[in-house]
Amino acid sequence: MKKAVITGLGILSPIGNSTEEFWQGIKEGRSGAGMVDRFDIEQFSSKIACMVKNFDPLQYIDKKELRRSDLVQQYSLAAAEMAVADSGIDLSRVNLERVGVVTGSGIGGIATFEDQTRTYIERGPGKVSPFFIPMMIIDMVPGLISLKYGFKGPNYSTVSACASSAHALADAQRIIARGEADIVVSGGAEAAITEMAFAGFCSSRALSTRNDDPATASRPFDKGRDGFVMGEGAAIIMVEEEEHALARGARVYASLLGAGMSADAHHITAPAPDGNGAARAMRAALTSAGIRPEEVDYVNTHGTSTPLGDIAETKAIRSVFGEHAEKLLVNSTKSMIGHMLGGAGAIEAAVTALSLNHGYAHRTINIFEQDPECDLDFLSDGAKEADLKVGISNSFGFGGHNITLVLGKHTNTTG
């Protein structure tokens, strides 16, 4: 079996429009949350979100393409360009038939769907854009990335709500392991801070209504948490076969060692209360990677700031790691960037890779009074520097989809 490593990162987030800006924001413990200003938010119960700021799509795509692309596609193309550049790869020396693209999104082009629905209602079917379908459908992201660079390997999307981009990375690792490609451009994106998406999440009472203090609204594992804060952005990751990467002198962030998946089969939105589905995903991931529980140093949790989810995940971690759970460094990136929905798994996998690379586990912000039922070291008092050798990243989606990725420190890391 071939080994997969991470050789490039491209991140567009609520706390930075590059991997460097994002990582600096993570180290500073910066909140990306603020009042929604893209539409009239007055009638909504939640009025806050973690929005991408000062993004100029024309840095990455031309005006003609801009008019024909949804925001989720623009975010993805920007992150892909960053990731390809960051990898240092010379595409003229690569067999493009062995470069795949597998990305995930939970919702896709919902802004386009809303806009074109208004057009249809107000002006009739003849005025609906001929680009409506390509702008809306989720699979067009890997399609557009392949068109831009000429990548002709495996190409498709994964859709599993908030687990979507983690599933994409799991597929990328397995495609590499089977020898079906040398590189898989993977990750995911979401751009769902829209009226209908917001209305739906508000109606389901999933979002925080701490509207008077947006910066502290995302409170994973805090006793006062009241729901997640919606985020947006993209994270694209270059997953490469190890020998291929080392032969070209690539900088390696981390190894992508394995993945485990399960279903709760419990409820359409709520997790299994005892965390058994999440625990099964973690155990399967460790088995896939050939890692013992006591070898894990760090857990990047799903950690959404929902009342039920955070408790269930804590129980799952304790179930899998037993006494070793006391030694784990555990955090939630969502405390700073909110919940990127289908893009969350990718950006949190990127954080895990960066944490292993730099020997640094970031603080979980906004834990003012830790929930006694969430009784792990969530790094609420500050970040910790440590020689992190193995980290896992959890992602759980509506519908009961659970996935855990296992990453390892790479011995040839130079960045």
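The record above closes out task 2.4. Task 2.5 opens with a second protein, given below.
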Amino acid sequence: MTIATHPQTGWPEVPLGELLSAIETGKNLRCQERPPKPHENGVVKVSSVSWGFFDRTQSKTLPSSYEPSPRSLIRNRDFLISRANTLELVGACIVVEDAPDNLYLSDKVLRLVLPDELKPWLLKFLSSSIGRARIEAASTGNQLSMRNISQEAIRSLMVPLPGCGEQGRIVARIDSLSAKSRRARDHLDHIPRLVEKYKQSIFAAAFKTQGERRTLGGVTSRITKGSSPKWQGFAYQSDGLLFVRSQNVGWGKLLLDDLSYLPSEFGEKHKNSAICKWDVLLNIVGASIGRTAVATDEIEGANCNQAVALIRLKSPNRTDARYVNLWLQSQEAQAKIVQGSVDVARANFSLSSIGSLALPWPDATVREAVVRRIETAFAWIDRIAAEAASARTLIDHLDAAVLAKAFRNELVPQNPTDEPASALLERIGAQRRFATARPRRAGRRSQLQLGV
């Protein structure tokens, strides 16, 4: 075998097949679409190896009448790779830890049989941008939604191969840096929950005012909702009357990335649900129930559907609209909305229930101060949340950069006393020759493709 040496890294690159004793796979069987119970047998789905760890819950239950071969049982330290998935996930691989005793290979999850000492290195390489590029280039399929990589293509993948000592130092360095980034990621992932908790504490403090409470019906001139265009025989079009749907109402803000339009005749027929500036919009149907926003210039004159309630104050103005909007986001208001919802096919909060909601209603000066205090605090919190999200993205990029640097041979210094890669290859070759020379009970086909 002729071994090419990479000019930048100085490492030899060999076909992956030269490192493998076998590639093992299972059968495609009709299974129950649920994980097996402890007394049942199952096969893994491709999603069991898609996210960097072995997910035993991503499995299917084999028919009780089928007895799988023990040779296809998944064991600890198995190196698994998916042969079919989306372009981004085809060839995803993991080394199994804590394997159950009832999961077997499927036809789309392969086991690469190779020396344990090579598994950490191969796993890191195939997960790197360089390895992923080679896998994606070797995969086939006309659709990006489902690509395949054959056993022959897997064997042909070129793999850099420094000596074992250098491999070990590089893998240890990657693991050390990955552990630090994982801890940072875990801390950052807590921030959205902390932000929501802090916002609710601000709401509780801001609305804990002395004075009268009034119902929304008592401070509004109109509480109404829109209609379904489909029920009225109208179809969406590319322009015309702007139509606000429940997906356009977020948590305290408008979401205007996905807008719909109707013929102007719809607005003429449904003038009562025409939106004015400083109206408060509240989702009253379905999973997004309770989300609220204030109407601004951007949607003035638009109409809304039957899942959106339009709340118009007696004296519409920015301060009171923001005050009502903020109170509706508070834990107190959200609890009342959930408790008052009727769930027939899906949750529904009635217009009369909106009108009966009682909220603190101090004088105008206090309402203005409450709005200013909450918005100032929220602006500060949102800046922190945005910085945390940016840091989270940078950490993901950092992990990719560490892998890229590792496979450019820039992560750790070389040690001239390390065993050369040629000695490693000779040892692997000897192990493979020994395995091939042993008596075999199964034929060549069953070596390459084991049935479950």
